[in-house]
Specification:
Layout (H helix, E strand, L loop, with lengths): L2 E4 L16 E5 L2 H12 L13 H10 L6 H13 L4 H8 L26 H17 L2 H7 L1 H15 L4 H9 L5 E8 L10 E3 L5 E3 L2 E3 L16 H19 L1 H14 L1 H6 L5 H22 L1 H13 L5 H13 L7 H17 L1 H5 L5 E5 L13 E6 L10 E2 L7 E2 L3 E2 L5 E7 L5 E6 L18 E6 L3
Parallel strand pairs: 1-2, 2-3, 3-5, 3-6
Antiparallel strand pairs: 4-5, 7-8, 8-12, 9-13, 10-12, 11-12, 13-14
């Protein structure tokens, strides 16, 4: 049974992080907030997302805005430029701090802790932590955190309400195996927007702290996180990194070539998500396949289908097949005791999918034609419909005509023909206008083939005659 502990306002992790297997602490972590504030002031875009704006973010600006020239902030800017210290590297250092109010390393930095992100060097970490201590004092971080205590408590309770619905730790133990020296907590990233980070810490004596951070990108009328069951997959995703990354890293010599192919074939999509190389794509692939398997087997078959679709729209077209393979692993635990035992099969899968990648792409629907033709000039403004023809049947009732502003045509209700290969969309046009819209894209991917594969985003534009 899951035991849920709320640890709202400890300055450091030790007192409130449970060591009993099966427990999960939920909290707003002052260390996470401190590092997020400094790197927000430094201008890191991942800590300044548009969807991170909130009454809390405004309180941060009012209290700390005048400290943008502080030495700690300037050092954060320099570390991003020189070493790429950003994203999870920031959060990795946060959980390696003993205390938010008197920042110091939790464990010696020589040698560097196993799980501290390697964008940090010993010297840089020591210099930055010293500057951070000055920032805490100069900017009165402790006073600010005290003023936010009620907001922190309510925010942690919001996430806890979701976490308590499922025995996450129990599932991880069953699927991956027990981690008897591991403790589990999940933190609310109040300034992280859509950024989620599966960061962990391992003490030199082998004890582990598994501490994913869930970014908040929606806010309710009270200015509190609007968190619901939609974060279930994110929680699973970030926790799974603890287990799957080690498996990928151990076998990277046999996986490197496949990772390079998958990255090269999907470089634009991966770079948009800050995934910069094949090894990262491999780690994300295995995690995302685990999430699909979880949603299929723990939540519902429909949730699993939606998760598979979501992963494919992010460029991970091969993850549903990898999730199928994980289903075999789950049914063969007498043969495969751990996921690492199963890695030869996973290596075979990646090798196969890269050699047959064009066959995989052929499963995805394509637009055969569109009328008015894409990029057409002098379209008759009396044209009353847009007609889109696909190369295979599409799912009934599903379409995503994306865009906005003055270039978006005035559409009526779309309808498919009987074979669902032709979509007709009533449209009202004006003379001498440029129009632009998309088929799928952003958060909208409702153009899906009958067998569940999404249409790659298509941009459509044309100009009407004067």
């Amino acid at each position: 049974m899951l035991i849920l502990l709320l640890a709202f306002f400890q300055s450091g992790p030790a007192a409130g992080t449970p060591q009993t297997p099966g427990t999960l602490a939920v909290r707003v972590d002052p260390r996470v907030e401190l590092l997020s504030i400094v790197f927000r002031l430094a201008g890191n875009p991942e800590y300044n997302m548009e969807n991170s704006k909130s009454p809390y973010a405004q309180a941060v600006e009012e209290h700390f805005g005048k400290f943008r020239d502080h030495a700690a902030v300037k050092m954060a800017q320099a570390l991003r430029r020189s070493n790429g210290v950003s994203y999870d590297a920031v959060m990795s250092l946060a959980i390696h701090l003993e205390d938010a109010f008197e920042p110091a390393p939790r464990t010696p930095l020589d040698p560097l802790p196993d799980l501290l992100d390697r964008r940090w060097t010993k010297e840089d970490a020591e210099r930055f932590i010293a500057a951070l201590r000055d920032f805490v004092r100069d900017a009165d971080f402790k006073g600010f955190a005290a003023s936010q205590r009620e907001r922190y408590e309510k925010s942690a309770a919001k996430l806890a309400a979701v976490v308590r619905k499922r025995d996450f730790v129990g599932w991880f133990s069953d699927f991956f195996g027990d981690r008897p020296r591991g403790s589990f907590q999940v933190a609310v990233g109040m300034l992280n927007g859509g950024g989620n980070y599966g960061v962990n810490m391992r003490h030199h004596d082998g004890r582990e702290e598994i501490s994913p951070i869930i970014g908040i990108y929606k806010w309710d009328a009270e200015g509190l996180p609007a968190i619901g069951d939609e974060v279930t997959d994110t929680i699973v995703h970030e926790f799974c990194h603890t287990y799957t990354n080690a498996c990928i890293n151990k076998h990277l010599d046999k996986l490197d070539a496949a990772g390079d192919v998958l990255f090269a074939r999907n470089a634009a999509a991966m770079k948009r998500q800050a995934y910069g190389n094949g090894a990262t794509v491999l780690r994300e692939s295995l995690v995302r396949a685990c999430v699909i398997h979880y949603m299929r087997t723990v939540v519902s078959a429909d949730a699993g289908r939606k998760q598979a679709l979501s992963e494919m729209t992010r460029g991970f077209k091969w993850t549903p097949g990898l999730a199928d393979l994980l289903g075999e692993f789950a049914k063969s635990r007498d043969k495969y005791k751990t996921l690492d035992d199963f890695m030869p099969r996973i290596i075979e899968y990646f090798d196969h999918i890269t050699k047959q990648y064009d066959e995989l792409l052929a499963r995805f629907p394509k637009v055969k034609s569109i009328s008015p033709a894409n990029a057409a000039p002098d379209v008759d403004p009396k044209t009353a419909e847009v007609v889109i023809t696909f190369d295979r049947p599409m799912q009934a009732g599903g379409w995503a005509l994306t865009g906005g502003g003055p270039e978006l045509p005035k559409f009526g209700k779309p309808s498919y023909n009987d074979s669902r290969t032709v979509l007709t969309v009533p449209v009202t046009l004006e003379p001498g206008r440029s129009y632009r819209f998309g088929l799928n894209g952003g958060r909208f991917y409702s153009f899906v083939s009958e067998d569940g594969y999404p249409l790659e985003p298509v941009e459509v534009k044309f100009t009407t005659a004067k």
